[in-house]
Structure formats: structure tokens, C-alpha cells
Amino acid sequence: MRSVSVDLNHDASLLIDIPDALCERDKVKFTVHTKTTLSSFQKPDFSVPRQHEDFIWLHDTLVETEDYAGLIIPPVPPKPDFESPREKMHKLGEGEATMTKEEYTKMKQELEAEYLAVFKKTVQVHEVFLQRLSSHPILSKDRNFQIFLEYDQDLTVRRKNAKEMFGGFFKNMVKSADEVLISGIKEVDDFFEQEKTFLLDYYSKIKDSTAKAEKMTRSHKNIADDYIHISATLNTLSADDSTANKKHCGGYYMSSFVFLQKVEGRVASDQELKLTELLRYYMRDIQAAKDLLYRRARALVDYENSNKALDKARLKSRDIPQAEEHQKQCLQKFDKLSESGKKELTSFKGRRVVAFRKNLIEMAELEIKHAKLLRTWLAMV
Amino acid sequence: MDTTLPPASQPSDVLMEPPSDLMNDPLIEPFSSLTENKPTSKIVSEPSDDFVDLTNNLADSPEDAAESVLADVAIDTTEIPLDEPSDDFVDIFGGETEAPREEVVIANVTVKAAAAADKSEVTSDVTDPPGDLKTGSDFEQEANETATDSIIDLSDDLLSSNAQKPPLASDQFVDPLVDFLSDAPPAADAKIPSRATVDLFEDEGNDLFTEPRQTKSAKQQQKSLFGEADEDLFGEPLGATTKKPVIKEPKGKPVPTKAARDVSNMGGPLQDGYTAEPADIFSEEAVTTVPSIKKTSAVNSKTNGVHSEEDTDIFAEATVELSLDSPQEERKKGVPAVPSASAPSVSAATSLAKPQSASLEELDDDEEEEEEEEEEQEDKFDISISVKDPEKIGDGMNAYMAYKVTTQTPLPMFRNKTFTVRRRFSDFLGLYEKLSEKHGPNGFIVPPPPEKSILGMTKVKVGKEDSSSADFVERRRAALERYLQRIVHHPSLLQDPDVREFLEREELPRAVGTQALSGAGFLKMINKATDAVSKMTIKMNESDVWFEEKLQEVESADQQFRKLHVLVESLVVHRKELSLNTASFAKSTAMLGSAEDNTALSRALSQLAEVEDKMEQLHQDQATNDTFNFAELIADYIRLLGSVRGSFDHRMKAWQRWQDAQAALQKKRETEAKLLWANKPDKLQLVKEEIAEWEVKVTQYERDFDRVTATVRKEVVRFDKEKARNFKREIINYLECLLQSQQQLIKYWEAFLPEAKAIA
């Protein structure tokens, strides 16, 4: 279950995990546990309680830090979403009358398992987020990150108020408008040009794949659920029947359907875990990479603007040193961004390939395993 | 009683079956099993050298039940050196199939007479039920020629205990029986492994039977790896093997137990027979000797079901003699006769085997195989029908689908071995109309054809060549095939001239009035029948617990089947969804692969897309499998259950008629009394005539009702049996399809795995 979507080479100097989480109504409290040899921390081993909002805060501060503009900031974990299992649970409660007791119990178990899986997944993505930060050479040194890990009181992160929410929304709008503008700018560097087209293309594709994979997994789950009902009905049917022979048959086949259901359900959850999660994660990661490109492009525009300003200043012979200074700064910033961006994107590529490889292999193996299990079972029937 | 072992054990072997007869229907059974007497007794007197051929011949003959009995005998007689040619056998059989049934009865009577002449002590009363038992034992004597006296002794004993002091008899034997019952389970356990595998694999072919036992038990062990599986796997064998301990029993404590079994079985009926209904006997019996009786009944009922057609006729004749008695008395006679009558058939078999090899172990095996074979033989009926090549004839709204109906059979009642006719859908419906008109009122369960589907057919008519209409035609074709197969596998329906005509005749007169059966109309009809049944049940004071329970069972089964059908349909829908989603995912993955800049990963992704593409096909096939092997089967049974209810309905109707006639008779009698009192002799004469007329009617209706009751009972038992077998077969089929698709799936993913590993 550990770090499914990213393969992180752990630095033993800073190890982070979330061993425990507590779900209270809508809030999920994660216990973030850190083990470290770094001297910047007061203790080598400590745990703090954190909420989802704290993670968002950490992410946002990182994104806003100018120095990290050239880095791919790990995507923020999605908000814990227990809506769908909850809703299903509700539906199940309503439909209780139409089902046999056994059927109901089984459905409930199934839902509980699903709920648990969602919960685990949530914990996992949060953990992965922290682990990616900790394994990053620059980000792991971040002050805010260390505070996040160490400060043993409630962070009391200011929750975003309505104005800020709107501000964030507005910022996003500006950003997307900017993106459109910037996308028209001629790229000076071939690498980034390529990277840009690739990422844009890839993003749309992976988004599509993710949606499709989600649908596919859902269908699998539906089938597994159908098997539950069928096996339960078969069971009642054979229980009703007085013929001894039939009783045996019914029970016999019912058990095969139970088995079918289990396998089908497992196929569904494994696909979900190995494939859909992978795609989903990289969808977000690519978004982060795109953000990096955006920031770089922004810097490029700034640089070009400063160039123009310098030209103007020279023309007017006024404020030349200031303009020069500004132009130099912009260039520096842009160069730095480009350099670190290049590095980041290359490492991102490698990371992506490794993660895909790992997950695809695992998925293929699991599929084979399930199919073989089912085959053995069927062959015996 | 304990004079000699062999004779004593013979009846006991035989008498395991009687309880089931009781359950089926005491009234008819005696006569049906009497018909069995004839063939068996013949076998006894004229065995054959090459019995293997014989069995084959027999297997081809239409009389399945008798045949299975014969086959059993044949197996048992393997080692007996015999002189007479086997041809006689076939002749007997051929003769019997074609010959009128009266002949059988006559034969029976003569046998009885012969028996009477042979043993004067025994023939004290031939007409009495126990007398039948003696005739049975007489056959044994003829076969054995050794232990004659002891058998007579035994039968004498039985006779006396049955006729004179039933309570005593049962008292005496209750204890051993209990012992036996408590002993039985371990014995059964010991046998389980081999039996279980046999059962599991019986559908896959015979070769498994011939394989050494070791392989089977090995497989068994493998199976037990699955925790869940065990229970279920063992569930049946236990039931199945319980029969064996009974047979085995002779070894352990030979005489008393066996005899006890006989007598307690007989004693029970005798005791109760006077006071209670046969159904009660059944329930009582069931409580005390559940496992063994259940199984035997299952086996036996099969035989009965097959025989049913003959039985009814014989019965009709036979009841004429008895009809003057009250139903109670009739039953009394019927019940005790049951065990004795069915006894000879199997006991003859056992007695033949005995002289050669007293080894009961072998007998066990034989018996076991017999059971299997019986089942097998029923599986491959001698007639196979296929419905193929649906073809659209005509255009527009007048268009219709015609199907090729091909029959393959060695049965002499058909002119050719293979023949093909073209039939349109309404012909199938017409056949059903005719059959249900003819046989429905007699309590037969006539298999219903698929409903007319206006929507589906319109699509076909409009000529859209899309997948849904092809799907529809294929579904209907398969349903029609199953419908015809059900008809020809029904022993009495097969004999119907209309069926023969349908299968054989080039041109059929156009079926008219099938519109009534179309779609909603058909459903309405079923519903009407259901309503009628429920209404009548309220009115009818159901005297038969069996029917009451069965009706409830049918009702709830119907409900469950409907639910199941909805579920399976939704499974199909979901599976199709999955297929679609997989397809779109495959496409999307292919796109992603093309966008990927890492060559290896790109290749892996496009490989994944291909795998998913294939998966889509698999899911689609699986959806078809869901539909054809599962949903259709269930739909069939929903229809069939409607027919079952229809037969219940007919029974009610017969009862109603009888009651009405009785009421009318009562009225006439009252009038008679009035007239007598008023002293009007002229009118009195008229009324007396009317009374006589009504009396005849009442007896006739009552007989009708009894006959319908018996038929329905037999039919329902047969139906249950068929249902169980059908389901087993179809579900195994279904699981096999699933297995294949899993195998494909494994192949695909295994091919993909190296690609994924190759990503650098």
C-alpha cells in the first residue's frame, strides 16, 4: 500500500509517514510522524496532528515562494471525499427492505470495505505529498515544511475566508488568461518548447484516460455487486426448494458466485489502485509541471518586458542603470528558472516512467493472479 | 425371519425404494411398478451373453425407466454364463413400445396367475396387496431356484405381520432401524470422496468414471483446499451416498436390520394408511429416515416420471375394479402394495448377482454406477432436436421467421432417422396450443414456448440488420430449441401425434389463433391462471399437504426467479457497460501512448491499449454468455413455472367438477327423499335414474381428479428433477465459458507483462 504512485528514493535523514488518521465527520485528522537525523529538528522522532487544510496551506506557501518558482511543487492531495460511499450506504439503508438479510449484510460489508479503501487512499496521498517534499533536495529544507512537521500545537492555519477564496478564484482566472497569452509567446529554448507541447498534449490525454479508467473500474464494481445479489437470490431459491438435490446445487453454485464476486471485486479495487490512482496522480503532477512552465514563461515575459524597458530607457537616456539592473535580474531569474526547470522536468520524466513501469507490472501481475485463481476455482467446479 | 441371509437381504435392497413410491403417489405406483415386473421377470428367465450390446440396445429404446432397470440387471448379470440370445430382449422392448398398454397389464395378470398357481400357500389372496409381494418373490425364486423356501417364509412373515399385526411389526423393527440410522453416517463419510468427484464430473464425460479411484480422491483433496467449497461439495455426496450404507448393511447386521427396514417402511404405511392420508405417511417417513429416503426417492422418481404415461393408462383401467371402493380404501390397498410391487424389479437384479459373487462390495459399486448410468441415460435421450438457420421470409409486416427443425432419432416411431422441416414461429405456438389443450387438463406440465415479442419482431421485420435484432433472433432460436427439446424429452408428449406431425410432416396447416398467445396476451393468460389458482385454493379445502407445500414452493420460486432474472439482466447491462468503458479506455490509452515521449513506455501503453481492446471483446462475449446461459435459462423457468401453476390449476378444476357433481348428486338424493315421502312413484323413477347417472359421474370425476392429482404430482417431481439437472448443466456450462474467458485473460496479461517490464 506504500507510495503506489511515486517511487521515492528515501533519504534516511528525513523519514515521514502517516501511521494513523481519524475521521471526524467531514474532517480527517492525520497523525504525521517524522523520524530524522537532521540537526534542524529539535527531536529525532516526533508526531503532530494535521488536517487536510494544513496540507493545503503548506502547498500554497510553497507555490507562493519565489525561490521555488523553478521547481515542480508536488501536487496538493485531493480533499478527502467520503461522499460516494456514504451516499451508497444511505441508499443501501433505504433499500434494506427489498433485500434478504444476508444480501444486506454482504452489501454492507462491501461498502465498508470500499469506505476503508477510500480512507486508506486518502491517507496515502497525503503521505505521498509529504514524502515527495522530504525527498526533494531543496523543498525538504523549507522552513514552513519543517514547521508543519514539527510544531506540536494545532497549526491554526487561517482558513481561507470568502474574500480570499474569491481572490484565489480570481487568481486562477488571471492565470488561465495569462496562460493563453503566454502560449502565444515564441519559445527561445527548444527543450521547453517541446516540453510545453508534450505536457499540454499529455495532460489532455491523461485526463481522458483517468476518466475512462474510473468508469471502467466502476463497471467492474457494479458487476461485483450484481454477483452479490445473484448469489443471495440463488441462495434463497435453493433454500426454498425442498428437493435435496437442488439444495446442494443451489448452495454449490451460490458459492461460486460468491467467489466470482470476490474476484471481480478485487480486480476492480486493484485496477482502481494500480491504474486509476496512477493516472490520477500523474494528472495532477503534470498540472504541477505545467505550472512550472507557466512560471517560467511568466519570467520570460518579464525578461522581455525588462529588455524593452531597457531599450526605452536607453532611448530616453534615463534610468538606464535601474533598467539594466532590472533586466539583469529578470534574465538571472529566467535563467535560473530555466535551469532548475530543465532539471525538474527531466527528473519528472524519469520518475513518471519508473512509476508507470512499476504500476503496470503490478497490475498485470495482479490481473494474472486473479484470473488464475478464478481459473483454478472454475476448473475444479 | 432370520433363516437365510440372501433372501432376506434381497427384499431389503428393494425395499429401500418403496418409501419414495409412497411419496410419489401410492395410488398409481403399484400399477406402474407392476409393469416393471414384466421386463424384469423376463430378464430373470432369459439372460444374455453379450449384455454390453444389450445395454446399448436398451439405451436406444424409448422406455427409459424400464431400461435403466434392465441396464442395472444387465450389469449385475455380467458374470453369469447365459445361453439365450439377447435378441429376445430387444424384441420384448420393441413390442412393448408399440404394443398397446393393455398387453402389459395382461402380462401382469398372467404372471400373477402363474404365481398363484405355483405357490398355493402364498396365493391365499392374490388380489390383496401382500399377494403382490409374493409374486415378486416368486420371480426371485425363478431366478434363484435355490432359496425358494426361505423367501416364501419371509414373505409369509411379512404378509402376516403386515396384514394382521402391523403395530407389532413396527414395534419390533423400530429399534434396529434407529441403530441403522445412527450407524449410517460414518459409512457414508467413508464413501464420500470418490462419490463426490464422480458427481462433480459426471457432466464432463464418462471417462472419469473409468479412471481409477485414486485420481478422484486426489482431485477431491485439491478441492478441499477451498474452505468454502468443502461444505457444498460434500453436501450432495452425503445425500447421495446415504443410499449406500443401506445396501452395505447386509454385511454388518444382515437380517434383522434389513427386514426392519422393509417392515418399518411397510408397517408405517399400513399403520397410518388406515387413518391418515398418504401425504402424512410421507411426512412421517421423512422425519425418521430422511437421508436415505430422500435420495432413493430422487432416483426412483425419475423412473416413475418416465413411466408415467403408461402408468396413467394402466391406472385408468385398474381403477375400474377399485372404483367402487371409497378413496380411503383404495388408498389402503394402494399403499401396502407399493413396496411389494416395486420390489421384484430390483430384487431380481440383486438376486442374479448374488449367486455369482456374494461380494456386496461389488454390488455397491454396481449400484452406484447404475445410479450414474441412470442419470446419464436420461441425459442423452434418444432424440435430439436442433433448431437452426433462422431465415426471414417475405417483406414488410408480413414477413416472418422460419426455422429449420432437424430431428435425429433412432426411435422406430419415426419414419426416418434424420429429418428436417421448416417451421415458422407461429407453428411452434400452435403446437403448444394443441398440446396444452390436450394434456393440460390431465395435469401434464406442457413446456411453454417463448412469448411473442412484437417489438423484437417488428425490428426484424423492418429489416434492420443491427446487432439487437440479430441478438433477438438468436435468443429466440435458442429458446425454441430448448422448448422442443423439453417436449420430446417428455415421455408422454413425445408420443403425441401432433408432436410427431410437427417434427415430421413437410407442410403443416397454418396455425391459427396464436395471436392470443402474443406478448401481453400470454402473460395475461398466466396471470389469469395464477389468480384462478389462488382463488380456488381459498375455496378448495386442500386435503393434500404435499400440494399445499408445493404450491407455495412454486410461488416463491417464481418470485425468486423473477428477481434473479432482473438481476442477471442488470448484470448483462453492467457487463456491456464495462465492455464499452473498456473500449473507450483502450482508445484513450492508445492516445496516451502516442503522446508519451518515452519510447518504451509509449510501447507499453499501446500494448496496454491492445490488451484492453481484447478485454473488451472478452467482456462482450461474457455478456453474451450471461445472456444465453443464464438469463435465458431463468426466463425459461419463469415460463415453466407458469405451466406448473397451470397444472395445479387444472387439478383444482378437476376437484371443482367433482365437488359440483357431488353437490348435484346430493340435491337429487334430497329430491328423491322428498318424492318418496310425497309418494310420487312416477317421478321417483326418473329421479332414481338421474341419481344413478350422477353417481356414475361423481365416481368418474373423482377418478379424474385422482388421476390428475397423481399426474400433477408425478409431473412436478419430474419437473423438479429436470430443473435441478438443467440448472446444474447450464451453470456448469456458464462457468466453463467463464473459465475460458479467464484463460484468455491470463494469456493477454501474460503477454503484456514483459512489455511492462521492458520499460526502462
From TrEMBL, chain A:
GO terms for biological process: pinocytosis; protein transport; retrograde transport, endosome to Golgi. PROSITE patterns: PX (PS50195). Residues 1-155 form the PX domain. InterPro entries: AH/BAR_dom_sf, PX_dom, PX_dom_sf, SNX5/SNX6/SNX32, Vps5_C. One of its GO terms (molecular function) is phosphatidylinositol binding. One of its GO terms (cellular component) is endosome. Keywords: Protein transport, Transport. Gene3D superfamilies: Arfaptin homology (AH) domain/BAR domain (1.20.1270.60), Phox-like domain (3.30.1520.10). It holds the Pfam family Vps5. Belongs to the sorting nexin family. This is Sorting nexin 5.
UniProtKB/TrEMBL annotation, chain B:
Keywords: Acetylation, Cell projection, Endosome, Golgi apparatus, Membrane, Phosphoprotein, Protein transport, Transport. Residues 335-349 have a biased composition (Low complexity). Residues 1-12, 215-224, 295-306 have a biased composition (Polar residues). Residues 381-510 form the PX domain. GO terms for molecular function: phosphatidylinositol binding. Residues 1-25, 116-149, 208-275, 295-386 are annotated as: Disordered. It is a peripheral membrane protein. Its main location: other. Residues 361-379 have a biased composition (Acidic residues). It holds the Pfam family PX. Belongs to the sorting nexin family. This is Sorting nexin-1.
